[in-house]
Design brief:
This is DUF1684 domain-containing protein. The protein has three helices and 16 strands. By secondary structure, the chain is mainly β. The protein folds into two domains: about 170 residues, no CATH class; about 90 residues, no CATH class. The strands form three sheets. A six-stranded antiparallel sheet has the order 1-10-9-8-5-6, with no helix packed on it. Strands 11-12-13-14-15-16 form a six-stranded antiparallel β-barrel.
């Protein structure tokens, strides 16, 4: 018989305090002057020279790469240096990019899903200035679970959808994470994390579209030892930027990561009405 793999004895008071601090730091980063709440548009570039509202320059993306032509009366800076005339960014790698600026405006110049894009970020954007907090389920140590990571022999390219219709992302899945919840064996496909000691999973569950964001939530897993032990703290399941703005190109959860349980932990859908949020937080 399988049993739930809870991560040892977690002091509820210390855990709550640590979680609250982490959650406030998350919101502070989200609401930073040029964070995703400051994004005002998503522009896809092509071979037709094009101007975009509030963004200086005429932009082109073709087989040569990405270029911008700056008029003499326009101001655009890269790494603190003004761009003059035509600037060639070259070919930008997938999921890579640079930031240029014009006054208080920052413009993300990047490649997502095979397309060169621009995303202006304005600190005065009402979506940012009106932001107060991200709602979340109350922290519950019972949702801190132990699991096991089994790496694939070779990374497996995995195509997932995107928050923007018609866009796709390809990520290298590096293995599977198995864990037990209420006697049920479950598994998640894992992608690389930000460090060698971390993994990332993109998932949905039975709360998706009810109390949590319908498309995806993300969870970073700590690999706790060389034998493949991992810790899944679902209280730290977070929304991706697409939960807050229509200008995000976030990946969706792969089909394999649609959990057949209700994960009543982590961040809630920010679009929930306040009465429902208060009910869940009670």
């Amino acid at each position: 018989m399988t049993t739930d793999q809870h991560a040892g004895n977690v002091d509820a008071v210390d855990y709550e305090s640590d979680w609250q601090r982490w959650h406030k730091e998350r919101d502070a980063a989200l609401a930073s002057p040029h964070g995703f709440l400051a994004v005002t548009a998503l522009h896809f570039l092509n071979a037709e020279p094009t101007r975009f509202p509030v963004v200086p320059g005429v932009w082109v993306s073709d087989a040569r790469g990405l270029r911008v032509e700056i008029a003499p009366d326009e101001t655009l800076e890269l790494d603190g240096q003004p761009l003059v005339g035509e600037h060639d960014f070259g070919i930008i790698a997938e999921r890579d990019g640079v930031t240029v600026s014009s006054g208080d405006l920052e413009i993300e110049v990047a490649k997502r899903g095979g397309f060169d894009i621009l995303r202006p970020r304005d600190p005065a954007n009402p979506r940012r200035t009106s932001f107060r907090r991200t709602p979340a389920y109350p922290a519950d140590p019972a949702w801190v679970l132990d699991g096991f990571f089994s790496p694939f022999v070779e990374p497996r390219p995995t195509t997932v959808g995107a928050a923007v219709e018609g866009l796709e992302h390809v990520y290298d899945a590096v293995g599977e994470v198995t864990f037990v919840h209420r006697g049920r064996d479950l598994r998640l496909v894992a992608f690389p994390g930000h460090t060698e000691q971390q993994l990332q999973v993109l998932f949905t569950d039975e709360t998706a579209g009810v109390t949590t964001h319908p498309a995806v939530r993300s969870l970073v897993l700590d690999v706790t030892d060389a034998g493949g032990a991992v810790r899944l703290d679902f209280n730290r399941a977070v929304n991706l930027p697409c939960a807050y703005t229509p200008y995000a190109t976030c990946p969706l959860a792969p089909l394999e990561n649609r959990l057949p349980i209700a994960v009543t932990a982590g961040e809630l859908d920010p679009s929930l009405d306040e009465a429902r949020i208060e009910q869940l937080a009670g």
